[in-house]
Specification:
By secondary structure, the chain is mainly β. The chain has one helix at about 30-35, and strands at about 10, 15, 25-30, 65-70, 75, 80. It is flat, with a radius of gyration of 16 Å.
């Protein structure tokens, strides 16, 4: 078995680890799946208009680079910070 550098894991150290294992407040996802976490409710973005919301990510790091997708009330790169309520209705 290989001994991986910090920040990498797998049989051949082929993929990145998620920072702080997402602090228990999120999931570790591949970069090809992170595009779906974009703000698809925003009508400001041109590629979200008119049709099904799909993305194709086929770059070299498709199944190598990973990042955290945080739970609804957490944020930051490793999901370690609790977000404060904001807006008109703090319960939504």
């Amino acid at each position: 078995e290989c001994a991986c550098f910090d920040g990498y894991e797998g049989k051949a150290c082929q993929r990145t680890t998620c920072p702080n294992d997402c602090s228990g407040h999120g999931t570790c996802e591949y970069i090809q799946d992170l595009a779906f976490s974009a703000d698809w409710n925003s009508d400001q973005l041109e590629y979200f208009k008119g049709g099904q919301l799909t993305f194709d990510y086929n770059n070299w790091d498709t199944r190598k680079t990973r990042g955290c997708v945080c739970d609804a009330t957490y944020g930051d790169i490793d999901c370690s910070k609790r977000m404060c309520p904001y807006g008109n209705d703090v319960l939504s």
